[in-house]
């Protein structure tokens, strides 16, 4: 059976400094501002209406992630599976007026996921402005006290497929219908449910060079990279944005088209020391990367 969701739709973040977060997303990542009110900003990097949604709040936190389905009937199926699994339906009203149908589900470790029909493609595909201009927002890596249980529940309810995991479920990567190695990653954290990072897709390696130079011009540095992950085979670099979120930039992620693909089970090494899994170019994760964590927003 194909996954019920096709791709990452958006990430919604609560930010303590809305204006600073908008500036960072535009000046460094190079996203375009779609709309802004005193307490909300919508940004995108392509023709889709919104990918990065920023809400003014007292504390920076993960508010929700959106997963896009191509079939409206899948919204109902996810709601049915969520209720069957005993999960809370947060809302059946779309979070944005441009979305036709949606259901938002709260998972046990605090992650809220909105399954929604496609985001309208009503923005210019190219635009002027500073920053790198990524291709799209491509994945998120969540944290959990029990990543195995969280991953299994998301696969059960959302139809995601496991691409790869470590032997003890310290890390797991799940793919959606577009076949990318992971749309949602899951990492074990003593802090429990939250967000480790979200990721923009770059066009080619030259964009990583530009990212380093843009950060340097602002007296900032990369948190890790560039390198090539063994899990996913993607090129990567990470930085921390103005709102305190870890942002990955990636390119060349593995595509898994085989519906019968058997998940890989890999040895991460002590403290993620197996470079063949973590970074095939050799540089192991920085302390800043290893310890990064943003909480999930408390449901109101």
UniProtKB/TrEMBL annotation:
Gene3D superfamilies: 2,3-Dihydroxybiphenyl 1,2-Dioxygenase, domain 1. Residues 7-118, 136-252 form the VOC domain. Pfam families: Glyoxalase (PF00903). This is VOC family protein. It comes from Paracoccus amoyensis. The lineage of its organism: Bacteria, Pseudomonadati, Pseudomonadota, Alphaproteobacteria, Rhodobacterales.
